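Subject: for your reference before the review

Hello V.,

The reviewers asked for a structural picture of the protein, and I figured it would be easier to keep everything in one thread rather than splitting it across files. Below is the amino acid sequence we used in the manuscript, unchanged from the supplementary table.
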Amino acid sequence: MSEFIHSSSARRDPKIRALRASFGNSAEPYAWYFLILEMLGENIDHKILLDEKGYEMLMNELNVDRETLKRFITISKKLGLFNVVDNYLFSPVFRIIDRKIKYFRDTRLRGSDAHWKSSEHRVDEQVKQDILECWNRARIIRHRKMTTKAEVRLRSALKDYTIEEIKKAIINYGKIVNNPKYFFKYKWTLEEFLMRGIAKFVNDECFKNFLSNKNVYVPYKEEENDDIKF
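And here is what came back from the structure prediction:
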């Protein structure tokens, strides 16, 4: 459903005045016009097909007969209040709204893209590569490249943690999630881990915190077949 602005001075619009004058200066055409705008706004494409079903729907909503409806549409077209193309009724009002929405959406996307592509908001390529390689060595969920969203999360994480602390958290997470001694088995993406996992795994206490009840805690030691190392 789309919204349109109903100005408090709409009744003074020259086109609306001309429309009302065509029907004896009655207020009914004014009401018909805004009723149809509401109906158009309820449709995704902001159109009404003027087939038999469409005419019946409009006649019922406006409480008019077919001849009055056709006359209303013809006069509205001449005044530029409505248009009919390929037997579809539509209003220039929604074309303007759609163009404005598209403009602001495209402008926001371009601005966002430029914001994160600027050197001020980018993470050093070598740092990104180090983190990505560390992540893939941890055997969690492999990524071929670091996404823009993950880079945003990494940049935010670097405000609170050093590169080595982030790498340590990744390594600890990989050791726990891949070891049956620990109950934590949920595998995040890199983006998700950078957002919610660093604090949980940056300290070696995590090996105790996520130990299954049936296992007795002992400080973690590297095993011969453990290839998840710094």
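For the response letter, the relevant points are probably these. The first strand starts at residue 48 and ends at 49. The radius of gyration is 32 Å.

Happy to draft the paragraph if you're swamped.

O.
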